[in-house]
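Input.
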Amino acid sequence: MKVINQEYLSGERALFQSENIRVENSVFADGESPLKESKHIDIDQSIFKWKYPLWYSQNIKVINSTLLETARSGIWYTHHIDIQDSIIEAPKTFRRSSDITLKNVDMPMALESFWNCQNIQLNHVRARGDYFGMNSENIVIHDLNLTGNYCFDGCKNIEIHHSKLISKDAFWNCENVTVYDSTIIGEYLAWNTKNITFVNCTIESLQGLCYIENLKLVNCRFMNTTLAFEYCKNIDAEIVSYIDSIMNPISGVIQALSIGELIMDETKINPSQTQIITSQPMVKIQSKECVCS
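Output.
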């Protein structure tokens, strides 16, 4: 494997169509698409300063490196890429790419990253930016700290562990989502989604968990969560805390420590299709038909 060490690489397509090379301690300066159409590339302790560094590339490994903000839209149409111990400051990274692994990576400007991608693994990632992970599939995440609204819109097959998401409109229009041991903070959580499960999670959300088909919550805690479960079908919810308010669930079972307000509008739903179980009396009930015990 050819080694490029301590080079200052400038000009458009500086290493265009390179194969089987290792780049160390180098700077990709001005010039678009320095590694476009490259294959089997190892990159260590290097800096990308300009746009589109890795487009149409395959089998890329990056460690101890940095993509500056100006390296925006940096990794598109690229497959089999592994990035570790690095900083991706650039927005709009990862589009229509697959087999992506990130470990110990900071993404302080992750706006519109991971769009239309497949087979993503994120381990110990910190990210900030709206529209993270739109329309992507087959995602496994461990220890993600994400701040940014509208994350994972339109995604399929997501598994998340030990993470924290501060995000309005998270998990909209999704299918097959399971979240374990995590905290989710943000309004309008998971609307229009099918098959979503939360296990040992803490949730804070105004009008969260509405318009969902097949919703499961296991040993979860709600904080300041109001008007939950509106028009949800097939609910199986075990909440080990107080719920501020519930509004018009369509069907299922909801168990909670207590509920501040239960709204069941007979003109919109059939209250008998939902069973509400609390261990403490409810404060306010707006229904003649709810089944409570």
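The two ends are 70 Å apart (CA to CA).
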